[in-house]
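Mods, move this if it's the wrong board.
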Amino acid sequence: MYKFILTVFSVAFLLVACQQDQKTGESTTQTVAATVSTIKTMDGLPPIYENYEELATIFEQRNDTTYVINFWSTWCAPCVKELPYFEALNRKYEAEKVKVILVSLDFPKQLETKLKPFLAENKLQSEVLVLTDPDANSWVDKVNPKWSGAIPATVVYKGETNKFYEKSFENLEELEEIITPFL
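Not the wrong board. Structure tokens:
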């Protein structure tokens, strides 16, 4: 069901983008070609990955660090509710080899109006990245085949070992339970 919803959102996004291109006289092919390998930066925002393949390297680190990667968005109430737990985890394990990465899935049109103010207000200390790739059905399974596409979702890995959680965490202790086996 969630993949269906993500597919609908992706199709709607692409239709709007195509309509915009027709209005401006720019071809869709030119627009796609221009953005296929672009990592953007905007003032006051973390790096923006328009293509999942460019972001995928965060899942390919083979060292002795435990990576905690959380997919979230400002429009997702359970995601926002659990962010303080990820921040607390980041602070608590900053002296250890634990890296918390928060991947925002906010919509491109909301980056300036929603994400930027949210980040400024909440002063997140964990690494934040933005993924705006509209074709979620092409990359959700690459993150984890069990992922329906719903958020919040979290991947914890170290070396070749990884665990996937498609759920909201209720407290710091719950998060600590899932990373303890990796330490």
